[in-house]
Specification:
about 400 residues, alpha+beta, Butyryl-Coa Dehydrogenase, subunit A, domain 1, Butyryl-CoA Dehydrogenase, subunit A, domain 2, Butyryl-CoA Dehydrogenase, subunit A, domain 3, 3 domains, four-stranded antiparallel sheet, 13 helices, globular
């Protein structure tokens, strides 16, 4: 599949996604019809290895598709961005893990919860996991989950690892009653002594050093990109689409409505025009930042060069700043939309709530990512405090 065809397949789904946006929110998970369309159109396979029936497209193809989906339904876009990136991450795991998942079903889907909130015990042949992991987006529609955990071994530094666990070994606690991104179904994962063999784990240190075991069987340039960067932009891209959706809803409303108590049109209101201009500038800048980052990274990888740590910390900040820009754009438009904007049949209120929920994600915190980049600029000889880069 080519990048243009991927975008065309996404566009073909937009009317249905837009029509189901409210249903998605009320279900507190994606409608089955949406997941079926994603699967049948191949959208979730964008970054999956070709040898496992994937397309190995450039990340920009996925991110641009996620943007389009978010302009219709942000929750559906969040699911697409997260789960499709998981198919890329599985390609970094040992070959035995890939065989275990894709050898049975190349359409298998994986949710995640990376924060190391559960307990990890070292046992013969692997690990035993217990506890609770929150915010596992799309878990109702997935047959596997990635969870994070701290591994402590005598004489070795503590390491954050990602563990791959099948649906038979965990429960889902339906605690997802939220104000934004409610359609993502980001519920809590619960385990009680689940055994995970060594081959179904992946070290964040290996990912940071661009030396993951799966690169031996997936040597293409796509799998030499930094994990932290690919994931961060997977949850930044939906913000651009949500802001675009709010922009489209705002312009459509302003063109049709007339000023209260007067003959003039709202489209002629200079304050409405002012806000629209500033919102569009933020959205365009965000889109260009995403495009520029991955075009640069892809050029380096294709040339056989490494991506310097400075660029990786800058990319982490760029991803968070993209979300910040888009929040500002939506806020400008929502504040100028009038009282009708707060009604649930108005799409702009959903974009407003959803984009603020996106901003709440830890990776989308611009203050922390700015500190990481600033520290790398001022102290280039010191190792970063966060390896999710």
């Amino acid at each position: 599949m080519e990048r243009a065809e991927y975008a065309d397949r996404v566009r073909a789904l937009l009317p249905g996604l837009r029509e189901r946006a409210r249903e998605c929110e009320e279900l507190r998970r994606l409608p089955d019809a949406t997941v079926k369309e994603f699967e049948e159109s191949g959208l979730l396979r964008a970054l999956q290895p070709a040898r496992w029936d994937g397309y190995e497209l450039p990340p920009l193809a996925l991110f641009e598709g996620v943007e389009l989906v978010a302009s219709a339904c942000p929750s559906s876009a969040w699911f697409l961005g997260v789960v499709a990136v998981h198919n890329w991450q599985l390609a970094l795991f040992p070959e035995a893990a890939q065989q275990e998942v894709w050898g049975e079903d190349t359409a298998a889907r994986i949710s995640s919860s990376y924060a190391p909130t559960g307990k990890v015990e070292n046992v013969d042949g692997g690990f035993r996991l217990s506890g609770r992991w929150s915010f596992s987006s799309g878990c109702d529609h997935c047959s596997w989950v990635f969870v994070g955990g701290l591994v402590r071994r005598e004489g070795e530094p503590t390491v954050l690892r990602t563990f791959l666990v099948p649906r038979s070994d965990y429960e889902i606690d339906d605690n997802w009653f939220v104000a934004g991104l409610s359609g993502t179904g980001s519920k809590e994962i619960v385990m009680e002594g689940a055994f995970v063999p060594e081959h179904r784990s992946h070290s964040l240190v290996d990912a940071f050093q661009l030396n993951s075991p799966g690169q031996a069987s997936n040597p293409g340039p796509l799998y030499r990109l930094p994990f932290g960067t690919v994931f961060s932009f997977g949850i930044a891209a939906p913000a651009i689409g949500a802001a675009q959706g709010a922009y489209d809803a705002y312009t459509a409303t302003m063109r049709e409505k007339r000023m209260a108590g007067g003959p003039g049109r709202l489209a002629d209101d200079p304050f409405a025009q002012h806000r629209l201009s500033h919102a569009e500038a933020e959205i365009s800048a965000a889109r260009l930042e995403l495009k520029g980052t991955f075009e640069h990274f892809s050029a380096l990888i294709d040339a056989g060069e490494e991506i310097p740590l400075r660029l990786r910390t800058r990319a982490r900040f760029t991803a968070a700043n993209i979300v910040q820009r888009c929040v500002r754009a939506v806020d400008l438009l929502f504040e100028a939309s009038g009282g009708r904007a707060i009604f649930l049949d108005s799409p702009i209120q959903r974009f407003f709530r959803d984009i603020h929920a996106m901003r709440a994600h830890a990776i989308n915190n611009p203050d922390r990512s700015a500190q990481l980049f600033g520290a790398s600029e001022l102290n280039p000889d010191q190792p970063p405090k966060d390896l999710f880069l």
